[in-house]
Design goal:
The complex is a heterodimer. Chain A is mostly helical. Chain A has a single domain, classed as MetI-like fold (Orthogonal Bundle). Chain A is 80% helix and 0% strand. Chain A has eight helices and no strands. Chain A is flat. By secondary structure, chain B is mainly alpha-helical. Chain B has one domain: MetI-like (MetI-like fold, Orthogonal Bundle), CATH 1.10.3720. Helices cover 75% and strands 0% of the residues of chain B. Chain B contains ten helices and no strands. In chain B, helix 2 crosses helix 5, helix 3 packs across helix 4 and helix 8 runs antiparallel to helix 10. The longest helix of chain B has 33 residues. The N and C termini of chain B lie far apart (61 Å). Classes of the chains: A mainly alpha, B mainly alpha. Chains A and B meet through helix 3 and helix 8 of A and helix 2, helix 3, helix 8, helix 9 and helix 10 of B.
Chain lengths: 230, 240
């Protein structure tokens, strides 16, 4: 079975796969994770706010993003971002955005909904006494968030945020539908050029498995180390 | 260069000749729902078995269950889809491989199997969490009453565990349904694929995707209501 498989096609394509493909995947993952966490924290704060309309808007956004498949959202933003750019900058024709920018916007906004649920659970798990003490010390809402609540939330939620980032790393493979050259896209291009689907897809699966497995082991170790006794 | 809105596009005939654009989208919706339901049957049954295996006293069962879950959770769904569709027919014996490739609706069967195995790993995690969240005394009481391991699981542990994990299982069902959209890459003509086709034929991008969005939100609402109804129906009276 393995006799007529030609694994040299993998070794000759390694620079392209990793320097082009994996670099794109890792860049997209890192930027979308940072953007998603920042935006997700803001959305979580909006949902927990006591102001009138804002919690409903945040809740609607999160529920909408969580009911749609990521593939559909990728397509949505691929077509929507040029028009949004035109509307924001007041230009007279839709802005040209590349597939990287539109997928970055997509993943940031999509994952922000999931990160916001994590952060919301985190903020709600902080004892109420913390917020009460901060307010008794005269801190404003934003000052207490910045100095008291959010640092604790980030410490508690770091393993879950990292797990969601690993999920995001896996989800970036879906930019394949835009024919973007991420790691899977690069493997696919080599596979179709050389007619070696089996070797390339197996190699892509092995690499993804290795990265995700090692990362989730690391997160588990981190979880044990930073667990605090309440 | 402004976008021309045309909400009447849904009633216009599609270039495929089989009806209007609305019919196209509804056909996609049907494929989505059928794929999701068939995959869920596999996922629920297989996932329950794997989840139970991870809680059994036997080391071998634990190892098999853990390997399965780690394998299917650490490879992205799209890569798994490609492995099932492109790689499996090549590594099987000649005649089986050709047989698979020549099946009518091959993308459908591949998508069902792939989604079933992928979602099974997530269901297994939920079932394991449910069983491990039960008080230890449940299992001990089963043993004390002389029930075999199988009987303990069947009559004592699993009924409580399943009722406890109904909400996360609903989430997994919805994830399964959303993941059917990944099958568009292997040629399954489900809802997202049809919306994309409608966008390509008619250039009415936002109408097409809005319709797909509305349909997905509707499915979500229906599933969440049904799950709430099931939860109320199977709840043990007086139990929390």
């Amino acid at each position: 079975m393995l006799a007529n498989f030609d694994f040299s096609v993998i070794t000759s394509a390694l620079p392209y796969l990793f320097l082009d493909g994996m670099r794109f995947t890792l860049t997209l993952t890192a930027l979308a994770a940072i953007g998603g966490i920042v935006l997700g924290t803001l959305i979580a704060m909006m949902r927990l706010s006591s102001l009138p309309v804002i919690p409903t808007v945040a809740k609607g956004y999160v529920n909408l993003m969580r009911s749609l498949p990521l593939v559909l959202v990728i397509f949505w933003f691929y077509f929507l971002v040029p028009y949004l750019g035109q509307w924001i900058t007041g230009a007279d024709r839709p802005m040209t955005v590349g597939a990287f920018t539109s997928s970055l916007v997509t993943f940031t906004l999509f994952e922000a909904a999931y990160f916001s649920e994590i952060m919301r659970a985190g903020i709600q798990s902080i004892p109420k006494g913390q917020a009460a003490a901060a307010s008794a010390l005269g801190l404003t809402y934003f000052a207490s968030m910045r100095s008291v609540i959010l640092p604790q939330v980030f410490r508690n939620m770091t393993p879950i945020l990292l797990t969601q980032t690993i999920v995001l790393f896996q989800d970036t493979s879906l930019v394949y539908v835009l024919s973007v050259t991420d790691f899977l896209g690069a493997a696919s291009k080599i596979a179709q050029r050389d007619g070696r689907l089996v070797e390339m897809y197996l190699f892509a699966a092995v690499v993804y498995f290795a990265v995700c497995f090692v990362a989730s082991m690391a997160v588990r170790r981190l979880q044990k180390k930073i667990a605090i006794i309440r | 260069m402004n976008y021309n809105w045309n909400w009447g596009i849904f009633l216009e005939p599609s270039p495929e000749g089989t009806g209007t654009y609305a019919d196209m989208l509804l056909s996609g919706l049907m494929w989505t729902v059928v794929t999701a339901l068939c995959a869920w049957v596999i996922a629920f049954l297989l996932g329950s078995v794997i989840g139970v295996m991870r809680t059994l006293p036997s080391k071998l069962a634990n190892a098999v269950g853990t390997t399965y879950v780690e394998l299917f959770r650490n490879i992205p769904l799209l890569v798994q889809m490609f492995l099932w569709y492109f790689v499996l027919p090549e590594v099987l014996p000649e005649s089986w491989g050709s047989g698979i490739k020549q099946l009518p609706n091959a993308p459908f069967y591949t998508a069902v199997v792939c989604l079933g195995f992928f979602t099974a790993s997530r269901v297994a995690e939920q079932v394991r969490a449910g069983i491990q969240a039960l008080p230890r005394g449940q299992k001990m009481a089963g043993t004390a009453m002389g029930l075999t391991v199988y009987q303990t699981y069947r009559y004592v542990l699993l009924p409580s565990a399943y009722r406890m994990i109904l909400p996360p299982l609903t989430s997994e069902f919805l994830n399964n349904l959303k993941n059917t959209s990944v099958a568009l890459t292997i040629g399954l003509l489900e809802l997202t694929a049809r919306a994309r086709a409608m966008q390509e034929f008619s250039f009415q991008v936002f109408e097409a995707f809005t319709a797909a969005t509305v349909l997905y939100v509707l499915i979500n609402v229906v599933v969440i209501f049904t799950s709430g109804w099931i939860e109320r129906r199977v709840a043990v009276p007086g139990h929390r």
